[in-house]
């Protein structure tokens, strides 16, 4: 039976021809909000939703047309603060302007896979705990979607739940890949990742390790082929980790990819994942560093960004919003992109941000 905390309250307030959708619960389900064309963009109608007192964080999961990227493009707090903002005084291309503004917003958003996005609020320590009251949001679909609607699942995490520190994973392995060459190799990688996450106060728990039924052709076309597998294989009660063969853009013996601020325990089937890709040179990466790569990708799933990302058109390098991470990539931070040094660490603020994830048990 569903707990009282998960009972859904939906209030539809109608004024003339305009509708506002208002919800209040620790789990909220918002269905079939229209997507409309506004200028050059396809955006959802504005949605109002209630965040209760004593909230530590909340997560917005948006689901729309599976062939297009979608992301929260505007998010406004009860006091009028724009956590996510698409408007810009900086002239960029007509298509990319809102998306790039989201990258620079106080609460950064980013689309990783098509058809679904997750936004963790806050993901910037300067914002503090979310204010109780009526919030307002809308989404942007990168191009014209086939489906002209978006649905949401919003998960609210209370202050009392900040004590949760377990990361439950289910691991799926592609047969005849690098990961199967030595019996027990994946278990050893997980053990190294567990050590790295323990430094952040997290406890990695493996619920299952299973082999996929069929060999995955390589190189994989990402993210589409990984999304297709995750949609059919994901289980909702854990972070789904995929150990896969090489991918199309493999630039190292082992690469990783993960959703940022991913979810568990959603009603809607989703394709969020943590994944690692290895070609036959995988042994060039030490077992310790393989574990660090996995811990790094799990860090993304729990809401952390790279300390620095290069190459955003029109704005250049983008840094995380944390005061205690370096703008120089040295490999000393667990969320530095690339190979890490022997003793990478999570910073104090990164550890605080990790605890905000609703994926922790």
UniProtKB/TrEMBL annotation:
Keywords: Signal. Residues 1-24 form the signal peptide. GO terms for molecular function: metallopeptidase activity. The keyword Signal applies. This is Peptidase M43 pregnancy-associated plasma-A domain-containing protein. Residues 340-361 are annotated as: Disordered. The keyword Signal applies.
